[in-house]
């Protein structure tokens, strides 16, 4: 393969590209989200949204949120799946990996439930691409020291 002329991605683009790759594993019917926890330019854990291990996926049994016409950003408890950020935190905990002071690269702005978990996990920065309709998440964020870094989708190559 000829690599002449190919632009080497910077670290932010590199990890966001990986988040997009991780999102491709999602089994959610409404939104595919990928998350990558990084510290010192090393990947600690990844996560995508989908049902817990061993349970049927929404793509196989249907989406409760669609069935009950629940808008995005509301009634998070009415879903079979876990969010990508939750799965990344759980993966790190499962393997005994500290994520304190890590950076989360995520394809979507975190909901308030995920943000509260990220706050308590000691996340230092969240780099995200898409917005998410959650006013409480934005309000909680104002009380934290977490650095929020939005990136444009043009800067990332899915």
Structure characteristics:
158 residues, alpha/beta, five-stranded mixed sheet, 6 helices
Helix-strand topology string: HEEHHHEHEHE
Q: Please give the radius of gyration in angstroms.
A: 16 Å
Q: What's the helix count? A: 6
The main sheet orders its strands as 2-1-3-4-5
Share of residues in strands:
15-25%
Counted beta strands:
5
Structural class: alpha/beta
Question: What is the helical fraction, as a range of percent?
Answer: 25-40%
User: Unreliable segments (pLDDT under 50, ≥5 consecutive)?
Assistant: none
Question: Kindly, what is the distance between the CA atoms of the first and last residues, rounded to a whole number of angstroms?
Answer: 20 Å
Biggest beta sheet attributes: 5 strands, mixed
**Average pLDDT for all residues:** 91
The coarse overall form would be globular
Walk me through the topology.
Blueprint: H1 11-23, E1 34-39, E2 42-48, H2 58-61, H3 64-67, H4 84-94, E3 103-108, H5 112-121, E4 125-130, H6 135-141, E5 147-150
Parallel strand pairs: 3-4, 4-5
Antiparallel strand pairs: 1-2, 1-3
Helix pairs in contact: 5-6
Summarize the structure.
The chain has 158 residues and is α/β, with parallel strands linked by helices.
Description:
This protein is of the alpha/beta class and 158 residues long. Helices cover 31% and strands 18% of the residues. The chain has helices at residues 11-23, 58-61, 64-67, 84-94, 112-121, 135-141; strands at 34-39, 42-48, 103-108, 125-130, 147-150. It has a five-stranded mixed β-sheet. β1 (34-39) and β2 form a beta hairpin. The two termini are 20 Å apart. The mean pLDDT is 91.
């Amino acid at each position: 393969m000829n690599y002449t002329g190919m632009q080497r991605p910077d670290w932010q683009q590199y990890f966001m590209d990986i988040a997009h790759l991780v999102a491709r594993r999602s089994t959610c019917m409404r939104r595919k989200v990928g998350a990558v926890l990084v510290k010192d330019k090393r990947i600690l854990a990844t996560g995508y949204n989908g049902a817990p291990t061993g349970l049927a996926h929404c793509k196989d049994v249907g989406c409760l949120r669609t069935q009950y016409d629940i808008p995005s950003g509301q009634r998070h408890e009415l879903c079979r799946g876990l969010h990508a950020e939750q799965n990344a935190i759980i993966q790190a905990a499962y393997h005994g990996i500290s994520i304190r002071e890590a950076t989360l690269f995520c394809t979507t702005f975190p909901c308030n439930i995920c943000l509260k978990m990220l706050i308590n996990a000691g996340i230092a920065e969240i780099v995200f691409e898409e917005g998410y309709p959650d006013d409480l998440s934005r309000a909680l964020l104002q009380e934290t020291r977490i650095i929020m870094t939005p990136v444009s989708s043009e800067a990332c190559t899915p």
